[in-house]
Automatic annotation (TrEMBL), chain B:
Keyword Mitochondrion set for record: yes
SUPFAM superfamilies in the cross-refs: Thioredoxin-like (SSF52833)
UniProt-recorded name of the protein: Large ribosomal subunit protein mL43
Coiled-coil ranges (or none): none
A molecular-function term among this protein's GO annotations: structural constituent of ribosome
Family, similarity comment: Belongs to the mitochondrion-specific ribosomal protein mL43 family.
Chief location bin: mitochondrion
Gene Ontology cellular-component terms listed: mitochondrial large ribosomal subunit
Keyword terms of this UniProt record: Mitochondrion, Ribonucleoprotein, Ribosomal protein
The organism of origin for this protein: Scylla paramamosain (Mud crab)
Record-linked SMART domains: L51_S25_CI-B8
Subcellular location: Mitochondrion
Length: 145, 187
Protein backbone atom coordinates (compact mmCIF):
# COMPACT_ATOMS: atom_id res chain seq x y z
CA UNK A 1 0.00 0.00 0.00
CA UNK A 2 1.50 3.31 -1.07
CA UNK A 3 1.38 6.08 1.51
CA UNK A 4 0.15 9.23 -0.26
CA UNK A 5 0.90 11.98 2.22
CA UNK A 6 3.57 14.59 2.95
CA UNK A 7 5.30 12.15 5.27
CA UNK A 8 6.52 10.44 2.09
CA UNK A 9 8.94 13.29 1.60
CA UNK A 10 10.50 12.95 5.04
CA UNK A 11 14.10 11.82 4.72
CA UNK A 12 15.69 9.38 7.12
CA UNK A 13 19.06 11.00 7.59
CA UNK A 14 21.96 10.22 9.90
CA UNK A 15 21.52 7.33 12.26
CA UNK A 16 25.20 6.64 11.66
CA UNK A 17 26.59 8.49 14.67
CA UNK A 18 27.03 5.42 16.87
CA UNK A 19 28.76 3.36 14.20
CA UNK A 20 30.97 6.22 13.06
CA UNK A 21 32.18 6.77 16.62
CA UNK A 22 32.62 3.08 17.19
CA UNK A 23 34.93 2.83 14.19
CA UNK A 24 37.13 5.56 15.68
CA UNK A 25 37.04 4.42 19.30
CA UNK A 26 37.87 0.83 18.32
CA UNK A 27 41.23 2.14 17.09
CA UNK A 28 41.98 3.77 20.44
CA UNK A 29 41.38 0.65 22.49
CA UNK A 30 44.96 0.61 23.74
CA UNK A 31 45.21 4.31 24.71
CA UNK A 32 45.31 5.69 28.25
CA UNK A 33 42.32 7.12 30.11
CA UNK A 34 39.55 9.08 28.43
CA UNK A 35 41.44 8.97 25.15
CA UNK A 36 40.26 5.42 24.67
CA UNK A 37 36.58 5.84 25.53
CA UNK A 38 35.40 9.38 24.77
CA UNK A 39 34.91 10.11 21.10
CA UNK A 40 35.69 13.85 20.98
CA UNK A 41 38.96 13.28 22.85
CA UNK A 42 39.84 10.02 21.11
CA UNK A 43 39.38 11.33 17.56
CA UNK A 44 42.31 13.75 18.00
CA UNK A 45 44.69 11.04 19.17
CA UNK A 46 43.46 8.49 16.68
CA UNK A 47 44.10 10.95 13.85
CA UNK A 48 47.60 11.53 15.20
CA UNK A 49 48.21 7.77 15.42
CA UNK A 50 47.04 7.24 11.84
CA UNK A 51 49.21 10.13 10.65
CA UNK A 52 52.24 8.61 12.37
CA UNK A 53 51.40 5.32 10.72
CA UNK A 54 51.52 6.78 7.21
CA UNK A 55 54.74 8.70 7.90
CA UNK A 56 56.36 5.63 9.41
CA UNK A 57 56.08 3.70 6.15
CA UNK A 58 58.99 5.74 4.82
CA UNK A 59 60.94 5.56 8.07
CA UNK A 60 60.56 1.80 8.25
CA UNK A 61 62.54 1.33 5.06
CA UNK A 62 65.53 3.27 6.34
CA UNK A 63 65.26 1.72 9.82
CA UNK A 64 65.26 -1.81 8.49
CA UNK A 65 68.16 -1.02 6.16
CA UNK A 66 70.12 0.36 9.11
CA UNK A 67 69.38 -2.82 11.06
CA UNK A 68 70.66 -4.95 8.20
CA UNK A 69 73.86 -2.90 7.97
CA UNK A 70 74.41 -3.26 11.73
CA UNK A 71 74.03 -7.01 11.48
CA UNK A 72 76.42 -7.33 8.56
CA UNK A 73 79.01 -5.10 10.27
CA UNK A 74 78.74 -7.19 13.43
CA UNK A 75 79.24 -10.41 11.48
CA UNK A 76 82.23 -8.90 9.65
CA UNK A 77 83.81 -7.77 12.91
CA UNK A 78 83.42 -11.25 14.34
CA UNK A 79 85.28 -12.66 11.34
CA UNK A 80 88.01 -9.99 11.41
CA UNK A 81 87.03 -7.87 8.39
CA UNK A 82 85.00 -4.76 7.76
CA UNK A 83 81.82 -4.24 5.78
CA UNK A 84 83.26 -1.44 3.55
CA UNK A 85 86.13 -3.75 2.57
CA UNK A 86 83.64 -6.51 1.83
CA UNK A 87 81.68 -4.15 -0.39
CA UNK A 88 84.85 -3.36 -2.39
CA UNK A 89 85.62 -7.06 -2.77
CA UNK A 90 82.06 -7.85 -3.95
CA UNK A 91 82.19 -4.95 -6.38
CA UNK A 92 85.38 -6.26 -7.98
CA UNK A 93 84.26 -9.89 -8.02
CA UNK A 94 80.78 -8.89 -9.32
CA UNK A 95 78.99 -10.61 -6.45
CA UNK A 96 75.63 -8.88 -6.44
CA UNK A 97 74.28 -9.48 -2.94
CA UNK A 98 72.21 -6.77 -1.31
CA UNK A 99 72.05 -6.01 2.39
CA UNK A 100 68.99 -8.18 2.89
CA UNK A 101 70.65 -11.27 1.46
CA UNK A 102 73.94 -10.62 3.24
CA UNK A 103 72.29 -10.37 6.64
CA UNK A 104 70.28 -13.52 5.91
CA UNK A 105 73.49 -15.34 5.02
CA UNK A 106 75.18 -14.07 8.16
CA UNK A 107 72.36 -15.43 10.31
CA UNK A 108 71.19 -18.57 8.53
CA UNK A 109 74.19 -19.61 6.38
CA UNK A 110 77.15 -18.50 8.51
CA UNK A 111 79.70 -20.61 6.66
CA UNK A 112 78.86 -18.95 3.36
CA UNK A 113 79.29 -15.60 5.03
CA UNK A 114 82.63 -16.75 6.41
CA UNK A 115 83.70 -17.61 2.87
CA UNK A 116 82.89 -14.05 1.82
CA UNK A 117 84.88 -12.69 4.77
CA UNK A 118 87.87 -14.88 3.89
CA UNK A 119 87.68 -13.64 0.33
CA UNK A 120 87.73 -10.07 1.61
CA UNK A 121 90.76 -10.72 3.77
CA UNK A 122 92.62 -12.47 0.97
CA UNK A 123 91.94 -9.66 -1.41
CA UNK A 124 93.34 -7.17 1.06
CA UNK A 125 96.58 -9.03 1.66
CA UNK A 126 97.56 -9.37 -1.98
CA UNK A 127 95.34 -8.66 -4.93
CA UNK A 128 93.56 -11.86 -6.00
CA UNK A 129 94.71 -11.76 -9.59
CA UNK A 130 98.02 -10.08 -8.90
CA UNK A 131 101.20 -11.81 -10.01
CA UNK A 132 103.12 -10.64 -6.94
CA UNK A 133 103.29 -12.90 -3.98
CA UNK A 134 101.93 -16.37 -3.32
CA UNK A 135 98.28 -17.13 -4.07
CA UNK A 136 96.22 -16.95 -0.85
CA UNK A 137 95.45 -20.21 0.86
CA UNK A 138 91.97 -21.68 0.75
CA UNK A 139 90.76 -19.43 -2.09
CA UNK A 140 89.83 -20.80 -5.52
CA UNK A 141 89.72 -18.25 -8.34
CA UNK A 142 88.34 -18.70 -11.85
CA UNK A 143 91.80 -18.78 -13.35
CA UNK A 144 92.67 -21.92 -11.38
CA UNK A 145 89.75 -23.99 -12.64
CA UNK B 1 38.21 2.72 6.61
CA UNK B 2 41.97 2.96 6.18
CA UNK B 3 44.12 0.01 5.29
CA UNK B 4 45.74 0.18 8.71
CA UNK B 5 42.36 -0.11 10.45
CA UNK B 6 41.44 -2.98 8.23
CA UNK B 7 44.67 -4.83 8.97
CA UNK B 8 44.47 -4.19 12.71
CA UNK B 9 40.93 -5.43 12.88
CA UNK B 10 41.21 -8.44 10.59
CA UNK B 11 44.65 -9.43 11.81
CA UNK B 12 47.78 -10.59 10.08
CA UNK B 13 49.53 -13.88 9.79
CA UNK B 14 52.18 -15.78 7.91
CA UNK B 15 51.54 -17.92 4.85
CA UNK B 16 50.38 -21.37 5.84
CA UNK B 17 48.68 -24.44 4.44
CA UNK B 18 46.57 -26.75 6.63
CA UNK B 19 48.56 -29.91 7.33
CA UNK B 20 51.13 -29.16 4.59
CA UNK B 21 48.41 -29.47 1.96
CA UNK B 22 49.88 -29.48 -1.52
CA UNK B 23 53.37 -30.53 -0.47
CA UNK B 24 52.34 -34.10 -1.17
CA UNK B 25 48.79 -34.73 -2.24
CA UNK B 26 46.36 -31.81 -2.58
CA UNK B 27 43.09 -32.27 -0.70
CA UNK B 28 40.17 -29.94 -1.35
CA UNK B 29 39.56 -28.04 1.87
CA UNK B 30 35.90 -27.23 1.29
CA UNK B 31 33.76 -29.53 3.42
CA UNK B 32 30.20 -28.30 2.97
CA UNK B 33 28.45 -25.45 1.27
CA UNK B 34 24.95 -24.16 2.11
CA UNK B 35 22.77 -22.27 -0.35
CA UNK B 36 20.13 -20.30 1.52
CA UNK B 37 17.48 -18.47 -0.51
CA UNK B 38 13.86 -17.37 -0.67
CA UNK B 39 11.53 -19.00 -3.17
CA UNK B 40 9.62 -15.83 -4.01
CA UNK B 41 11.62 -12.69 -3.17
CA UNK B 42 13.35 -10.89 -6.04
CA UNK B 43 16.72 -10.74 -4.36
CA UNK B 44 17.07 -14.50 -4.62
CA UNK B 45 16.46 -14.59 -8.37
CA UNK B 46 20.09 -15.19 -9.26
CA UNK B 47 20.37 -17.82 -6.58
CA UNK B 48 17.30 -19.67 -7.84
CA UNK B 49 18.70 -19.55 -11.37
CA UNK B 50 22.02 -20.95 -10.15
CA UNK B 51 20.30 -23.78 -8.30
CA UNK B 52 18.27 -24.68 -11.37
CA UNK B 53 21.15 -24.54 -13.85
CA UNK B 54 24.58 -24.88 -12.26
CA UNK B 55 24.24 -26.53 -8.88
CA UNK B 56 24.00 -30.14 -10.00
CA UNK B 57 27.04 -29.70 -12.22
CA UNK B 58 28.97 -28.29 -9.29
CA UNK B 59 27.90 -31.16 -7.03
CA UNK B 60 28.98 -33.73 -9.64
CA UNK B 61 32.37 -32.10 -10.16
CA UNK B 62 33.04 -31.91 -6.41
CA UNK B 63 31.97 -35.23 -4.91
CA UNK B 64 33.86 -34.47 -1.69
CA UNK B 65 31.73 -31.43 -0.90
CA UNK B 66 28.37 -31.77 0.85
CA UNK B 67 25.82 -29.40 -0.65
CA UNK B 68 22.88 -28.15 1.41
CA UNK B 69 20.01 -26.16 -0.06
CA UNK B 70 17.87 -24.23 2.42
CA UNK B 71 14.80 -22.45 1.14
CA UNK B 72 13.79 -19.96 3.85
CA UNK B 73 10.99 -17.46 3.51
CA UNK B 74 11.71 -13.72 3.87
CA UNK B 75 15.48 -14.22 4.14
CA UNK B 76 18.08 -12.79 1.82
CA UNK B 77 20.15 -15.33 -0.10
CA UNK B 78 23.60 -16.29 1.07
CA UNK B 79 26.36 -18.85 0.76
CA UNK B 80 27.91 -20.46 3.79
CA UNK B 81 31.04 -22.52 3.31
CA UNK B 82 32.67 -24.64 5.98
CA UNK B 83 36.16 -26.05 5.74
CA UNK B 84 38.05 -29.06 7.03
CA UNK B 85 40.01 -27.10 9.61
CA UNK B 86 36.83 -25.54 11.05
CA UNK B 87 37.00 -22.23 9.21
CA UNK B 88 33.85 -20.65 7.84
CA UNK B 89 33.04 -18.17 5.10
CA UNK B 90 29.76 -16.31 4.74
CA UNK B 91 28.90 -14.46 1.54
CA UNK B 92 25.66 -12.59 0.98
CA UNK B 93 24.36 -13.03 -2.56
CA UNK B 94 21.43 -10.64 -2.31
CA UNK B 95 20.51 -9.34 -5.77
CA UNK B 96 23.42 -11.17 -7.38
CA UNK B 97 23.17 -12.60 -10.86
CA UNK B 98 23.69 -16.26 -11.58
CA UNK B 99 27.14 -15.50 -13.06
CA UNK B 100 28.17 -13.68 -9.87
CA UNK B 101 27.14 -16.66 -7.76
CA UNK B 102 29.11 -19.00 -10.02
CA UNK B 103 32.19 -16.89 -9.36
CA UNK B 104 31.60 -16.75 -5.61
CA UNK B 105 31.15 -20.50 -5.43
CA UNK B 106 34.36 -21.01 -7.36
CA UNK B 107 36.09 -18.62 -4.93
CA UNK B 108 34.84 -20.61 -1.94
CA UNK B 109 35.81 -23.88 -3.55
CA UNK B 110 39.46 -22.91 -3.77
CA UNK B 111 39.95 -21.41 -0.30
CA UNK B 112 41.64 -23.04 2.64
CA UNK B 113 39.77 -22.59 5.91
CA UNK B 114 42.03 -19.82 7.18
CA UNK B 115 40.44 -16.38 7.51
CA UNK B 116 41.27 -13.54 5.15
CA UNK B 117 44.29 -11.86 6.69
CA UNK B 118 47.15 -9.65 5.64
CA UNK B 119 50.16 -11.77 4.81
CA UNK B 120 53.22 -10.56 6.66
CA UNK B 121 55.52 -12.28 4.15
CA UNK B 122 54.69 -13.91 0.87
CA UNK B 123 57.09 -16.75 1.53
CA UNK B 124 57.44 -19.26 4.31
CA UNK B 125 59.81 -22.07 5.08
CA UNK B 126 59.99 -24.48 7.98
CA UNK B 127 63.71 -24.89 7.34
CA UNK B 128 65.26 -21.45 6.90
CA UNK B 129 68.79 -22.73 7.33
CA UNK B 130 70.78 -25.41 5.53
CA UNK B 131 74.13 -24.90 7.20
CA UNK B 132 72.55 -24.40 10.61
CA UNK B 133 71.83 -20.99 12.11
CA UNK B 134 74.51 -18.83 13.67
CA UNK B 135 75.69 -19.69 17.18
CA UNK B 136 78.33 -17.82 19.19
CA UNK B 137 80.72 -20.74 18.71
CA UNK B 138 80.33 -21.44 15.01
CA UNK B 139 83.31 -19.34 13.99
CA UNK B 140 85.45 -20.35 16.93
CA UNK B 141 87.90 -23.18 17.08
CA UNK B 142 86.32 -26.35 18.57
CA UNK B 143 89.52 -26.85 20.61
CA UNK B 144 88.16 -24.45 23.22
CA UNK B 145 85.76 -27.21 24.32
CA UNK B 146 88.59 -29.26 25.79
CA UNK B 147 90.67 -26.45 27.21
CA UNK B 148 91.54 -26.47 30.88
CA UNK B 149 90.69 -23.19 32.54
CA UNK B 150 92.37 -20.92 33.64
CA UNK B 151 94.12 -20.84 30.24
CA UNK B 152 96.85 -18.28 29.66
CA UNK B 153 96.50 -18.41 25.89
CA UNK B 154 92.81 -17.50 25.89
CA UNK B 155 93.09 -15.02 28.74
CA UNK B 156 95.77 -13.06 26.87
CA UNK B 157 95.05 -9.55 25.67
CA UNK B 158 93.74 -9.42 22.08
CA UNK B 159 95.61 -6.62 20.31
CA UNK B 160 93.28 -4.54 18.14
CA UNK B 161 96.06 -2.70 16.32
CA UNK B 162 99.24 -4.25 14.99
CA UNK B 163 102.34 -3.18 16.84
CA UNK B 164 105.08 -1.12 15.23
CA UNK B 165 107.41 -4.14 15.13
CA UNK B 166 104.79 -6.19 13.29
CA UNK B 167 104.17 -3.35 10.84
CA UNK B 168 107.89 -3.07 10.05
CA UNK B 169 108.16 -6.82 9.47
CA UNK B 170 105.16 -6.73 7.10
CA UNK B 171 106.67 -3.83 5.15
CA UNK B 172 109.92 -5.77 4.86
CA UNK B 173 108.06 -8.82 3.52
CA UNK B 174 106.20 -6.68 0.96
CA UNK B 175 109.41 -5.03 -0.25
CA UNK B 176 111.10 -8.42 -0.59
CA UNK B 177 108.21 -9.75 -2.74
CA UNK B 178 108.20 -6.64 -4.91
CA UNK B 179 111.93 -6.97 -5.52
CA UNK B 180 111.51 -10.65 -6.38
CA UNK B 181 108.68 -9.74 -8.76
CA UNK B 182 110.81 -7.06 -10.45
CA UNK B 183 113.73 -9.50 -10.61
CA UNK B 184 111.59 -12.24 -12.24
CA UNK B 185 110.13 -9.87 -14.92
CA UNK B 186 113.52 -8.41 -15.88
CA UNK B 187 115.33 -11.79 -16.00
Amino acid sequence: MVITSPTLFARARGGDRFWKRRRVVSLSAHFYGRKRNCYTIAIKYVNRALRYNTLARRLRKSDVRELWTTRISAACTELGTKYPDMKIMMDDSSIALNRNMLQNLAIWEPRSFRALALLTKSRQEVGLNSLEGPSPAGVVTRGML
Amino acid sequence: MTTKTWNLFWGSNFVRAPLQNGVGRYVQQLQRITFKFCKTHGGSKGMREYIEKELIGFARENPGVVVYVKPRRHRSPCLKAEYLNGGEEYISTHVNTCEDIVKWVEYLRGRSGYPVERLRKYHHTDYPSIQGPWTPWIHRHPGINIKEYPCEELSAVQPTEISATQKLLELYEQQKQQQEGVGSTTS
